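hi! just following up on the protien thing from before. the input was this:
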Amino acid sequence: MDKVTEIAFQIILYAGNGRSSAMEAIQLAKENQFEEADQLIKDATKELEKAHGFQTQLLQEEASGTGASVNVILVHSQDHLMTAMTVRDLATEIIDIYRNK
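and the predicted 3d structure came back as:
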């Protein structure tokens, strides 16, 4: 497996962890468990930061002229990361709605 594919799988892993934590946080907010929900949002953010770190590594290599070719797994990882970040952002808003109802 080449380096780009390995990094892509790391992005998918951490983005998936972040998305799962955000979705679980929404469920806890439904049950008025806001402290736990808030902690899961923090956990999601940490996981997404890890994924973003791998993405940044790829971007820096590309900017320096040492980037590798794009493959479908890398494209999938980028889609996965952006979706997970959106889910986390929306989960934060949904939790606030539950908290203030």
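The CA atoms of residues 22 and 91 lie 6 Å apart.
The two ends are 50 Å apart (CA to CA).
cheers
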